[in-house]
Amino acid sequence: METDVNAATAGLAMTQAKASCGTLPGYMSGFGNDFETEALPGALPQGQNSPQRCSFGLYAEQLSGTPFTAPRGRNERTWCYRIRPSVKHSSKYRKIEVDYWKTAPNIVRDVVSLGQYRWDALPLDDNGTTFLTGMRTMTTAGDVNTQMGMAAHSYVVSESMIDEYYCSADSELLIVPQEGRLRLYTELGVIDLAPTEIAIVPRGLLMRVEVVAGPARGFVCENYGAKFELPNRGPIGANCLANSRDFKIPVACFEDRETPSRVTVKWCGEFHACDIGHSPLDVVAWHGNYAPCKYGLDTFSPVGAVLFDHPDPSIFTVLTAPSPVAGTANIDFILFRDRWSVAEHTFRPPWYHKNIMSELMGNIHGVYDAKPEGFVPGGMSLHNMMLPHGPDRDAFEAATSGELKPTKLENTMSFMFETRFPQHLTEYAAREAPLQSDYIECWSTLEKRFAPSLNKQE
């Protein structure tokens, strides 16, 4: 909506936006910005956070994402103006079981995590699972009690949560859809989520997950450590990779519903439930910098070599969760998407290597250039720390014998959850998930090519 206003000093007519919250209706733009939004005009206090009486009889409540005294540049909090304070519930917390959702430390004594593993996609069964009960933990790393480490999950969801809400006190969630569409109803607004998008839900935020098109399948990285942030670009400079403006934060949205409901809280790896007599999604207005967001992976602008050699895969980092060790992430979220490959006299696919970081990969769609066979959409692979891995024979032969002309990698999107910690297989990943038992055979036909009589590259 635009209006004409007069520029009094210059006598010129100017066009000014009446109200703008970004180019995508229902969302505001920016990563880590300070936002303010109200679903009911006048609900948001001006000039202070906690007035004696809030408008419309609302309660002021702060959600803190960092300690109060964290440095200003890292201090995160949001003030919520809600119909009822969130402390209002009608029963005590009671422990419940969520069988397949595991938390570190979770070391299964007779499961071997040392190895190269790959799984097919979980079947897209209409099995009546919600976002909570359809989660399948594949690996865990670190220790939730020290707030370091992560867990990697795959999910298949066929039913919406009805009068049921979930909150994690352990972690923020990075959700990566691969099939179907979800709608996240959070305390701070609504996020629609489809394949080639991701969402970040902060620790401590309640949500209800609805299946819009299903069954839905995807991946989740559960981050126990420092919050995800955009990586420093270093010599790349101010542009490319993931840009702040492409992250979308939902505007305020509330419901005032009196109905028996249940809240499930994950705390130190255990699940607890309590009963409430209303919907907790009753935040009418909010302001702050601690909020959920979504991001379109198609907006990630990759960079690469334009002459020769293969840059480190760190150039594809979308998000990073730092650790106390500088340059060594608690988690990196890395994306391999469509891009041009142009390097001259260079082996272009990922090289053979051993890494101090543990790498769990997932395929969203298409073919991954280092594994043209077997790494299917919806599938996952794990190469644990300091274990060798790299291209299979077909990828190696194509890369060493093909003509090195500019080639565009198309219809490809895979990602990596990379962590400084060893990732331990869960019992489900080792015994129930569709594990490819012959995965290591993809390297068995690599041949000895050593020829001492050759004294130069040919």
Observed structural traits:
2 helices, 26 strands, mainly beta, 10-stranded antiparallel sheet, single chain, 3% helix, disordered N terminus, 458 residues
Walk me through this protein's architecture.
It is a single chain. 3% of the residues lie in helices and 39% in strands. Strands 3, 9, 10, 12, 13, 14, 15, 16, 20 and 26 form a 10-stranded antiparallel sheet that branches. The longest helix is centred in the last third of the chain and has 9 residues. The chain is globular. The chain starts with a strand and ends in a 27-residue tail after the last helix.
List the topology elements.
Elements: E1 2-7, E2 12-17, E3 27-29, E4 35-38, E5 59-64, E6 77-82, E7 94-96, E8 116-119, E9 135-143, E10 148-157, E11 164-168, E12 172-186, E13 189-193, E14 197-201, E15 207-223, E16 247-250, E17 261-267, E18 270-276, E19 283-288, E20 293-296, E21 317-322, E22 329-341, E23 358-366, E24 380-383, H1 393-401, E25 407-419, E26 424-425, H2 427-431
Parallel strand pairs: 11-17
Antiparallel strand pairs: 1-2, 3-16, 4-19, 5-6, 6-19, 7-18, 8-24, 9-10, 9-26, 10-15, 12-13, 12-14, 12-15, 14-20, 16-20, 17-18, 21-22, 22-25, 23-24, 23-25
